[in-house]
Structure formats: C-alpha cells, structure tokens
Amino acid sequence: MITVSPGARITSSAQPDWRQLWRDAVTDSRELLDLLDLGHLADRLPAADAGFALRVPRGFVARMRKGDANDPLLLQVLPQLLELEQVPGFVMDAVGDLASREAQGVLHKYQGRALLIASGSCAINCRYCFRRHFPYGDEMAAAGQWRQALEHVRQDKSINELILSGGDPLALATSKLEELSHGLAGLPHITRLRIHTRLPVVLPERIDAPFIEWLRSLPLQKVVVLHANHANEFDEAVDGACASLRDAGATLLNQSVLLRGVNDDASSLTALSERMFAAGVLPYYLHQLDRVQGAAHFEVSDDRAHGLVEAMRGCLPGYLVPKLVREVGGDPSKRPL
Ligand SMILES: *Cc1c(COP(=O)(O)O)cnc(C)c1O
Ligand code: SF4
Description:
Blueprint: E1 2-3, E2 11-12, H1 18-23, H2 29-35, H3 58-61, H4 74-77, E3 101-103, E4 106-110, E5 113-119, H5 136-139, H6 147-155, E6 161-166, H7 174-184, E7 192-196, H8 199-202, H9 209-217, E8 221-227, H10 236-247, E9 250-257, H11 266-278, E10 282-287, H12 302-315, E11 323-326, E12 335-336
Parallel strand pairs: 5-6, 6-7, 7-8, 8-9, 9-10, 10-11
Antiparallel strand pairs: 1-2, 3-4, 4-5, 11-12
The protein binds pyridoxal-5'-phosphate (PLP) and iron/sulfur cluster.
C-alpha cells in the first residue's frame, strides 16, 4: 500500500528496513519501564548493567503487557539486582565452549556437526544468555571472514552439517551470508545448513526478500532453529517470517530455555508449543538453564522441570513435547534429563 500525506514524500508501508529497526532498539531500562507504564519501578533497577546492556527491539516491546511487572517477555530482558549476586556454581564459561574451539570461531563438540560463531551481536540481550560472557572479539568466525572456518570444515570430511550460531548469525548482512554459501559450494560433504537464530521472533523484519531468496537458492537441506520461550513472543509478523522461511524450504524447529517466572508452568509451556505449531514450528529442545554467572535467579530444579514435561506429555501430542536437555561440557551430545 502506498500512502501519500500532503506535503510529504511518498512512503511505502512495506516492511521498514531491519537495520533501522535494529538500531532503534530500546537500550535504556528507564525508557523501557516508561513505555510499559512501569516507571515507578525504576528505583529497583541495578545502577550498573553487569557488563551486559539492556537491548530489545521495539516490536518485541509491543508484545509485552503494559503495567505488568511480571510480563514474561519483560523478565527476559530487564536487568535485575539479582544478577549482581555471586552464586556458587554459576560461572563465566558454563558450557565449556572455550575447550571445544577447533579453529577461529569453530566449535566442534558433536559428531558430524560443526558450529560457527558467525556473529557476536544480537538484536536482543537475553538476561539468561549462556554467552553473556563469551569473548566474541577473539572468536568470531565471520564478520565476513569465513576462510579459517571453511578451511577447517573442508579438511574434516566427517562434518556434514554446518550450524551458524552466535550471537545471532542473521545479524550479518545477506551479502556476507552469500560469501559463506559460495565458500560452501566447494565442500560436497556438507549437505545441511542449520541456522540458530532468534531474529525471526524478535525482529521478524530481518526475514526480508533478499534473505529469503538467498535461503531458497542454497543447494542444501535447510533447518532453522528459532528461539522463543513464551507464546506471547509470536504475533502476525512472526507468523509471516515463519511462513517465508518454510516457503524457502526450511524445516522450522524451536528451542526454549526453561526460565523461572517466565515459562515454568505447564500451561505456559503447553501454550507455547501450540502457538509455535500454529506458526509451522515444531518444538525441539527445552533447555535447562546453563549455569552462567548472573542468571541463577532463572533456574528451575531438575525435579520440577521433569514434572513440567510430564504434564505437557499428558495434554499434548507427542510431537509438541520438546526434549528436556542440559548441555554438559565434554559430553558427546546434549544430555537428556
Ligand atoms: C548444541 C550444539 C550443537 C547442536 O546439537 P544438536 O543436538 O544437534 O542440536 C552442535 N554443536 C555445538 C557446539 C553445540 O553446542
Ligand atoms: S538471542 Fe540467543 S545468543 Fe542472543 S542474547 Fe538471546 S539467548 Fe543469547
């Protein structure tokens, strides 16, 4: 639709550019609270951000409930005083990433799959993020420099699936992704490309026409693993992004993190599975929290986690029940609980 207002230039209500929306994200806790009519809570904010700033796209803020300090989307992004507590067992490198590094930006932990740290940036900063302390500056595979990573993958013919992760790999410009796919053209043992991304959920505008064209053109099997933790994270724009991804030939899965106060009840988890399936997405993993410093207040006990998944099994078809797992450094796979 084209709208023309008197004296103004012609503007199109087609999707705004995702980079602009990325830059426009809310980065100030007080502003976020004001937008949600929660300004009176500002004195409960930590004075410092514990080295991990607030960042949340405005479209995601629009899905939060106004006036609700316990909104499940808000709790995922708002810095809290609790983060500053040192809790024994909650450490900087919670999943042994640094031990599994095989080349710059390449993590190779599991048979057949190599994971590339394709970007250190995310459109959103999730407070529970297991990589909040990751030394991205040293470890980026990409920023357009795929050479070392591709060389590693070329030499190891046991790898058939390349996983783009981060940070968020779709933080990269589509032209950078094209450079990667050109590099992959000479590696016939790579048959699958998997993308781990939260962007279709938190900034669905990223799934624009050039990106979809790129994805569709890949002569590989394509899997996109989304990351949503609550049914309220889905809206029409997210549905549209998911539909485009499926049209481009991608299988859509979702991984969630079990988070105290956000989704640690059977009805939230059930609603999440139902809602994602309505968007054409199947649940994959439900992760027990990685024990990363500053995230202890989100932890749910294994016993409770078990009970929640059993409750889901009691009211959902089997394909809508995610696998409950924990990542343990040194294990040959994610560990089922
Ligand atoms: C989680 C992870 C994978 C993918 O594991 P799947 O069980 O296949 O989803 C691959 N490599 C690394 C380093 C990982 O952390
Ligand atoms: S999108 Fe993923 S990698 Fe980025 S901050 Fe959130 S949990 Fe961490």
